[in-house]
Amino acid sequence: MKLQTSSSQRQYIFLANELASLDSSKKYRVLELGAATEIIKSYLPENFEYKSADIDSDHDYKFNLDAGKFPIQNNMFDIIICFETLEHIMYPDRVMKEIVRIAKPDAIFFLSLPNEYNLLQRIYFLLGKKTMFDEPFQVVEKHLHIHKPRVQDILGLFSRYLAIKKVHYMWQSLHSTDYLPFSFLFRFLDRILTLLAKVQPSLFSRLVIVKAVKKNVRNSK
Q1: Alpha helices, DSSP H only, in the chain?
Q2: Structural domains in the chain, sorted by start
């Protein structure tokens, strides 16, 4: 399957390739948590039944991830996707427990978190510079980046609840989107830094993506 994606959506290529490799004769129930604009939906093969969950009303499930138990029954979904969401919520461990609960025994999980200790963030700290996600005293109120995990923190969180099968490290510049001037230079830089991230992820990865299964599953999905 040839993937058509903009430069600002390259983080979904790993997901799309993994989904395309699954049994095409089987039907899969998919839940995306923190779905926002539901970009992921466009990358799903036809045999995937997609459901979305977020805090606003334009989704199949409307609820606050921090509110406690999800309004979803046990063992409901074959695939659960949660990309760049857990850093915005107060209680990631509680959410991870709920993610495991609503997934089928042989479910596959695709999860991601930003590495907030990458090289650029360290430079920003030395220069006293803040990003759009670091508004003082407003991170909780505005659901910004409440948590600032390192690579080892991200993998530690996910591995407490799941068995990690694959890890994908990538760098994506905020200026690499197709419509910005000189974006081709940033896209080239992204490719170089993504290669470096495989060697030194703590410095050169901005995003950590994992594929995982439940811990009691012994197959090699």
Answers
A1: 11-20, 92-102, 119-127, 151-161, 183-199, 201-204
A2: 7-214 (3.40.50.150)
